[in-house]
Amino acid sequence: MNDAARQRICILGSTGSVGVSTLDVLSRHTERYEVVALTAYTRIDELFAQCVQWRPRFAAILATVDLGSIASARAYSLSASSSLSAM
Questions:
Q1: CB neighbours (10 Å) of residue 52?
Q2: Residue 34: its pLDDT value, please?
Q3: Has residue 18 been placed in a domain?
Q4: What is the pLDDT, as a whole number, of residue 64?
């Protein structure tokens, strides 16, 4: 299936149990689905790990966080097409 035919998916609450289960299902069907956005409430480290794995175009977190304090950020580098930013 080409990229144009893939279903684009946004996971609200991707770090919660339902979100994690949904991503597990999607991981078995990567040819059919593209994760374009992930959101979380406060679990920034888990959201960051999901962003590294799934490379969504968008990621959002509700809680106020200091992006400089994310320990995981030192272990991973994001490609130029993916980025994290604070509003």
A1: 16
A2: 97
A3: yes
A4: 76
Does residue 76 fall inside a structural domain? Answer: no
Residue 55, number of CB atoms within 10 A of its CB: 15
> Which residue carries 């994290």 as its tokens?
84
Q: Give the CATH number for residue 50.
A: 3.40.50.720
CA distance 8 to 18: 18
In a domain, 72, yes or no: no
Query: Per the structure, how many domains does the chain have?
Result: 1
The sign of the torsion formed by the CA atoms of 17, 65, 86, 71 equals negative
pLDDT of residue 62: 87
E strand map for 13-83 = 33-40, 58-61
Secondary structure of 32-52 in HEC code, one letter for each residue = CEEEEEEEECCCHHHHHHHHH
